[in-house]
């Protein structure tokens, strides 16, 4: 379980209400703790009797989810593909650390291991899949060379494509995505428990839907390439390799059950309840944040500023979802700056909140890892702009080069939690005290 002290930064540490804010954050994270979510599901939904039971964990929360299953069920075998492996008192088990966010050789090896693991299944077996965010990159069995898949993924990350759009392309290029695990399960019954890291909890988008039917088509994949003008910027192997995936009416899914057991909505509700207990008037703004992080950050800061005249203090505004970042200078100069979508969201709020008394905005990734950094997110207050100016920094300058990390690092207002073991999108919390 997450201790509130795990969220401490300079602004939270020094602020009178910092402990209350940390308790709100901890409540949100603990409500979607991966192992507890599996345990709760199994208590309410006992597994059917099967000759043999196998576990396949995929994603950032795979270790905790698989261990929770093993504590309740005797397993014949288990395979875990994750980003950060944790010690497991579990046998038999194979644990593989894949690459993220861009698939690499380890991800390719994980895909080979998954195909081998699935090949042992028979019709009277039960396969329990424990799927969470990150699985799309951590495991791959591509129909194109790995280097070409890496180029495509990098291009999609740089142009600001949403994760659901990226995963449409992944599904149509990979034999284990878009229902591919079910295809290779040899008719075994499949129960898939999912932690949703996508807006709207679309099953086909979570880890690119290894056990879910795919309602999208190759035409949808091509439309994304056209939308972001990528046709001449990606390898020539991509377009010919696109193939159709398993669709919702395919009879193969008659033996498959997919259930979302933790989501951003659950985390938001827990934050709302805790904030109310801390004495805040609470308003959940939205649970479907998508779009450019810098635009959303300014918009949210403006909404907080405007709410100061219409809502009595103390109050809290909450939102969830996942923004994207378009690199200002493209891939060639991406080393200009460092950061992630939550840090950029927060950075874009700095100037709008400048000078406001007793306000705070926090944007944080529930997996504890914001983009390619060691921070989960960042904290902004009405004093952030002035503190930055005293250090010779401006929010606008750092935003222009996608360099949120160094800005908040200098202020001591990066939020470091370490890998959380869960993954249900991002949270935005705005406070007026």
Structural Rg: 22 Å
User: How far apart lie the N and C ends?
Assistant: 27 Å
Arithmetic mean pLDDT: 95
Which class do the helix and strand fractions yield? alpha/beta
- The CATH homologous superfamily of the largest domain is named Glycerate kinase, MOFRL-like N-terminal domain
Task: Choose one word for the global shape.
Answer: globular
CATH class of the largest domain: Alpha Beta
Architecture per CATH nomenclature, i.e. the level-2 architecture of the largest domain: 3-Layer(aba) Sandwich
Helix proportion of residues, in percent?
25-40%
For the sheet with most strands, the description reads: 6 strands, parallel
Low-confidence stretches: 330-335
CATH topology of the largest domain: Rossmann fold
What count of domains describes the coordinates? 2
Descriptive account of the structure:
There is one protein chain. With 433 residues, this protein is an alpha/beta fold. It folds into two domains: 4-32 and 265-432, MOFRL domain (glycerate kinase, domain 1, 3-Layer(aba) Sandwich); 34-262, Glycerate kinase, MOFRL-like N-terminal domain (Rossmann fold, 3-Layer(aba) Sandwich), CATH 3.40.50. The protein has 17 helices and twelve strands. The chain has helices at 10-14, 18-31, 34-44, 62-70, 105-118, 135-138, 146-159, 163-171, 180-183, 218-227, 238-241, 264-277, 293-307, 341-353, 384-390, 395-400, 404-411; strands at residues 52-58, 77-82, 94-97, 125-131, 189-195, 256-262, 281-289, 315-321, 359-365, 377-381, 414-415, 426-432. Strands 3-2-1-4-5-6 form a six-stranded parallel sheet, with helices on both faces. Strands 7-8-12-9-10-11 form a six-stranded mixed sheet, with helices on both faces. Helix 2 (18-31) packs antiparallel against helix 12 (264-277), helix 3 runs parallel beside helix 4 (62-70) and helix 8 (163-171) crosses helix 10 (218-227). The radius of gyration is 22 Å and the shape is globular. The relative contact order is 0.14.
């Amino acid at each position: 379980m997450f201790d509130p002290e795990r969220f401490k930064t300079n602004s939270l540490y020094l602020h009178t209400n910092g402990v209350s804010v940390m308790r709100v954050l901890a409540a949100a994270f603990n409500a979607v703790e991966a192992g507890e979510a599996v345990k709760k599901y199994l208590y309410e939904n006992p597994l059917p009797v099967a000759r043999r039971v196998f576990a396949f964990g995929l994603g950032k929360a795979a270790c905790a989810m698989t261990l929770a299953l093993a504590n309740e069920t005797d397993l014949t075998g288990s395979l875990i593909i994750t980003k950060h492996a944790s010690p497991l008192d579990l046998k038999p088990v194979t644990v593989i650390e894949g690459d993220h966010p861009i698939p690499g050789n380890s991800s390719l090896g994980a895909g080979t291991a998954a195909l081998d693991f699935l090949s042992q299944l028979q019709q009277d077996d039960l396969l329990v899949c424990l799927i969470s965010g990150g699985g799309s990159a951590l495991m791959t069995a591509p129909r194109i060379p790995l280097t070409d898949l890496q180029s495509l993924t990098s291009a999609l990350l740089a142009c600001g494509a949403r994760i659901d759009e990226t995963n449409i392309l992944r599904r149509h290029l990979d034999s284990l995505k878009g229902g591919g695990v079910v295809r290779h399960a040899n008719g075994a019954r499949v129960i898939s428990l999912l932690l949703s890291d996508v807006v709207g909890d679309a099953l086909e988008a979570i880890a690119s839907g290894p056990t879910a039917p795919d309602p999208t088509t190759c035409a949808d994949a091509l439309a994304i390439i056209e939308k972001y003008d990528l046709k001449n910027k990606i390898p020539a192997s991509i377009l010919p390799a696109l193939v159709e995936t398993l669709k919702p009416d395919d009879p193969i899914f008659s033996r498959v059950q997919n259930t979302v057991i933790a989501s951003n909505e659950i985390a938001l509700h827990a934050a709302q309840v805790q904030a109310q207990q801390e004495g805040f008037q609470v308003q959940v703004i939205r649970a479907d944040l998508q779009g450019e992080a810098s635009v959303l950050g300014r918009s949210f800061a403006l909404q907080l500023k405007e709410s100061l005249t219409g809502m009595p203090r103390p109050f809290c505004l909450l939102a969830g979802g996942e923004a994207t970042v378009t690199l200002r200078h493209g891939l060639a100069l991406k080393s200009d700056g460092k950061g992630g979508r939550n840090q950029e969201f927060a950075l874009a709020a700095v100037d709008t909140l400048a000078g406001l008394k007793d306000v705070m905005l926090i944007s944080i990734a529930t997996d504890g890892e914001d983009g390619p950094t060691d921070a989960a997110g960042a904290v902004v207050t009405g004093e952030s702009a002035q503190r930055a100016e005293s250090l010779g920094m401006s929010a606008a300058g750092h935003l222009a080069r996608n360099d949120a990390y160094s800005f908040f690092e200098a202020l001591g207002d990066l939020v470091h939690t370490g890998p959380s073991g869960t993954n249900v999108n991002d949270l935005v919390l705005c406070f007026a005290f």
